[in-house]
Write a structure and sequence with these properties.
Helix content is 26%, strand content 22%. The chain has 422 residues and is α+β, with helices and mostly antiparallel strands. It has a six-stranded mixed sheet with strand order 6-11-14-15-16-17, covered by helices on one side. Strands 8-7-12-13 form a four-stranded mixed sheet. One of its GO terms (molecular function) is O-acyltransferase activity. Pfam families: LCAT.
Length: 422
């Protein structure tokens, strides 16, 4: 008996649970506001669950934060599955059930489902081509979400470092070597060398993105973690690096479905680590295994303090618009003007008849806001918001936004409220 193509597709969709049977479909009010999902690294509550079903929050917490972090959250990467497993065999890590946003993102992972249920995709401060300076220092020295005496009440920098060595997301945030960087990031080391006569010479060595992998390997070759009375080696993980490189290649070929509108908001105007230097002419690096104890010095570029603007705007996708907003990497999510842009793009809430995204001069920070930023030791280099308007007939997809010439207008609003079109 012949079966039509339409019937085959319908059966396949039901089998994949992409749609429900007609009698099970529920009415959805088209006037409801859209759901805004904001995923991010370290942005989820995590719980450790033992064999008896007892759960303890391990991220984020204050009391005994470092102890719970080391005993429950430290993990190892399994290259055969691509999963990270807790070092404690009796513990599993889960996201609380009330975090529906993460479950929704997981369900939307297959491309057919994504295209069917997602209308708008808005990237905010996303490191499309990596965050070179931040990740290099994190890989070698660890990172801390708090500074000063407050670190005593949170997770130590070194405890965080031991977790991130086995974190696939961190390897994926390494600078993309195939991207055409305007100023390529380097890892620089002051080294002491001896010639054939035994004379000592101090020189600055620079390593490209590919060459720096060898430095990571040598620096972390003796890295270990003490767990349950024993010592476990925790070197630079080449398995995760290979996994991350494959992920990067897949993303470079990804395209936004035709029915999905893509927007990109990226941070600007802050000094952002790009190249990293260890040692000095007076105190050169003598042993690479001691590199993790050195203080990193950065060469900065414009960005949001974590992700360079050049990386965040180079999404390589067919975008409806790209907007550069002065702001800090995490703080930009709570920026009132960014929220106003989101409402405009998503058509959420009551329409604002006075809002024109191209001529809205309220985007500039006030003098008071600038002083608040300076008090937090954040350097503001420029004050402007940049808009990139992509014509409907332009279908430019490249690794670099500036790589090809195409008819795009940039609209910048400067501090003196003048409008310039380039």
């Amino acid at each position: 008996m012949a079966v039509s193509l339409e019937e085959l597709v319908k059966v396949l969709e039901i089998w994949l649970k992409l749609i429900k049977k007609p009698q099970e479909q529920q009415y959805v009010d088209p006037n409801l506001d859209p759901v805004l999902l904001v995923p991010g690294i370290a942005g989820s509550i995590l719980e450790a669950v033992d064999q008896n079903g007892h759960s303890d929050r391990v991220w984020v917490r204050i009391f005994a934060a470092d102890y719970m972090f080391r005993t429950k959250l430290w993990s190892r990467f399994d290259p055969s599955t691509g999963k990270t497993l807790s070092l404690d065999p009796n513990t599993t890590i889960r996201v609380p059930e009330d975090r529906d946003g993460l479950y929704a993102i997981d369900v939307l992972d297959p491309d057919l489902v994504f295209e069917k249920y997602v209308k708008n995709w808005i990237a905010i401060a996303a490191p499309f081509q990596g965050a070179p300076g931040y990740v290099t220092s994190t890989m070698l020295n660890g990172c801390s979400f708090v500074e000063g005496w407050e670190q005593n009440f949170f997770i130590s920098k070194w405890s965080m470092h031991q977790l991130l060595i086995e974190c696939p997301s961190v390897y994926e945030l390494m600078a993309c070597p195939d991207f055409h960087w305007r100023n390529p990031p380097y890892l620089e080391l002051w080294r002491e060398k001896h010639d054939d006569d035994g004379n000592s010479h101090i020189r600055l060595e620079s390593y490209t993105l590919e060459e720096s992998i060898t430095i990571f390997e040598k620096s972390l070759s003796s890295n270990t973690v003490d767990y349950v009375g024993g010592s476990m080696p925790l070197p630079f993980n080449l398995d995760i690096l290979n996994w991350a490189n494959e992920t990067r290649e897949i993303l470079s070929r990804a395209r936004v479905p035709p029915k999905v509108k893509f927007y990109n908001i990226y941070g600007t105007s802050l000094q952002t680590p790009h190249s990293v230097c260890y040692g000095s002419e007076d105190s050169p690096v003598t042993d690479l295994e001691e590199l993790r104890y050195y203080q990193a010095k950065f060469t900065s570029v414009e960005g949001d303090g974590t992700v360079p603007t050049e990386s965040a705007k180079a999404d390589g996708l067919n975008a409806e618009a790209r907007v550069g907003v002065p702001g800090e990497h995490r703080g930009i999510l709570s920026d009132h003007h960014v929220f106003r842009i989101l409402k405009h793009w998503l058509n959420a809430g009551e329409p604002d008849p006075f809002y024109d995204p191209l001529n809205d001069y309220v985007i500039l920070p006030t003098e008071f806001e600038i002083e608040r930023v300076m008090e937090k030791c954040l350097h503001v280099t420029t004050l402007q918001e940049e808009w990139e308007i992509i014509p409907k007939d332009a279908d430019v997809i490249d690794d670099s936004v500036d790589a090809k010439e195409h008819p795009i207008s940039f609209i910048s609003v400067s501090e003196v409220a003048s409008l310039s079109v380039q």
